[in-house]
Write a structure and sequence with these properties.
Pathway: Purine metabolism; ppGpp biosynthesis; ppGpp from GTP: step 1/2. Pfam families: RelA_SpoT. InterPro entries: GTP_Pyrophosphokinase, NT_sf, RelA_SpoT. This protein has about 230 residues and is an alpha/beta fold. It has helices at about 10-20, 30-60, 75-85, 95-100, 115-125, 175-190, 195-225; strands at about 1-5, 65-75, 105-110, 130-135, 150-160, 160-175. It is built from seven helices and six strands; from the N terminus they run E-H-H-E-H-H-E-H-E-E-E-H-H. Strands 1-2-3-6-5-4 form a six-stranded mixed beta sheet. It starts with a strand and ends with a helix. The model has no long low-confidence stretch (mean pLDDT about 90). The protein binds guanosine-5'-triphosphate and magnesium ion. The site of guanosine-5'-triphosphate has 10 residues, from helix 6.
Length: about 230
């Protein structure tokens, strides 16, 4: 299993993106924003390591890797501002702290559906991990057909100056669900496609999401039978 650890936004990049955003004046304390990004990045590293260790343990004890691979990403300033805008909030340190939980995100791609809940349980059972938010789009898929388990956990990050709890968003889904989400995302953001075609593809994708879930469930049964 591989964890792609993406490069952390550096101070210069954050400053540049803030300048481009025209909302610069609303961020009174630039250093505080950088500090939040840095803390969240450390939080993602902590959670990433925990997930790697869990996968190692399963592989050692049960000869099965629940995790296929993982991706770690930091939110860009542009999408941070976009999200605050949608919530009707200004870009202030207070609003970032109180309303944005996905500055650091880890996407966990599992081999089977059961692995999603196995990973979730083993992670939130750890005494230093606290579950803050949970959306199960597998039990309750989005109208588009989107399936995934989204959780936000809080983790203490130890620094030279003390300890702080930070949120990390973890999206957990199977290879099939991930493949579907990538294609649907492409369709959603393609602007030069004939609307009639978009409608047709959207309908088909809704259907395929259910079919993929069905196939992944049946493949899981075969896997269980062979264990
Ligand atoms: P945002 O993060 O601002 O979108 O709001 P939120 O955190 O309230 O939303 P949510 O928990 O539903 O997760 C949003 C993320 O899930 C998006 O950024 C996408 O990555 C993914 N997502 C949600 N719905 C869909 C969908 O219908 N299709 C695809 N491809 N991805 C989706
Ligand atoms: Mg989100």
């Amino acid at each position: 299993m591989i964890l792609e650890r993406n490069n952390f936004l550096n101070v210069k990049q954050i400053e540049q993106q803030l300048k481009q955003s025209q909302q610069k004046s609303r961020i009174d304390d630039f250093k505080a924003l950088v500090k939040i990004f840095q803390l969240c990045h450390s939080g993602a590293n902590e959670i990433g390591t925990k997930l790697e260790n869990l996968d190692d343990e399963y592989s050692m004890n049960y000869d099965h890797n629940p995790i296929h691979h993982m991706e770690e990403r930091m939110k860009s300033i542009g999408s941070l501002i976009g999200k605050l805008d949608r919530k009707g909030l200004d870009l202030t340190i207070e609003n970032v702290r109180n309303h944005i939980y996905d500055i650091a995100g880890i996407r966990v791609i599992t081999n089977y559906i059961d692995d999603i809940y196995r990973i979730e349980e083993a992670l939130i059972d750890q005494s230093d991990v606290t579950l803050i938010r949970r959306k199960d789009y597998i039990k309750n898929p989005k109208p588009s057909g989107y399936r995934s388990l989204h959780i936000v956990v809080s983790i203490p990050v130890f620094q030279s100056t003390g300890v702080e709890d930070v949120p990390v968003e973890v999206q957990i889904r199977t290879i099939g669900m991930d493949m579907w989400a990538s294609l649907e995302h492409k369709l959603r953001y393609k602007t030069n496609v004939d609307p009639k075609k978009v409608k047709e593809h959207t309908g088909n994708l809704q259907k395929y999401a259910t079919e993929l879930y069905d196939i992944e469930s049946r493949m899981q049964e075969i896997f269980k039978d062979l264990q």
